[in-house]
């Protein structure tokens, strides 16, 4: 567990997720998905059971970090590792932040923790991610950290009657 002071003086706590956290992660994900169109699922569409999420956390070939502010879950970020031999050197990055905590630098902190984790894992050589092309704040952060744009898939996501393009990015580690 690490305690970090943000630029505005607020304090966050960041730690690795444990299987016991599944009961707070599921409602969090279903709530934050309703706050933005930039996640791959919408409000109440994260259908994993608490038991399945607990097992996923325990057996995940990667890492998941939780950020808390004032005992409230503010962010879930993770590197999703692969199990196929040909992809063991890669992992997918995923970050979500509760809307009330946007713009505080939490995303940059989470990215730093995930990249640091990947650099200390001798097997990992590449982090990749998908980001909605309209998500300018995330795109800027990823580019500033060193992620490289690999291409764009038009209309990969559909939110209501709107189609969203998605950029693919990667970072060698």
UniProtKB/TrEMBL annotation:
Pfam families xref list: Acetyltransf_1
A single MF term (Gene Ontology): acyltransferase activity, transferring groups other than amino-acyl groups
Domain N-acetyltransferase as annotated: residue spans: 12-173
InterPro entries assigned: Acyl_CoA_acyltransferase, GNAT_dom
Domain of life: Bacteria
The protein's name in its UniProt record: N-acetyltransferase domain-containing protein
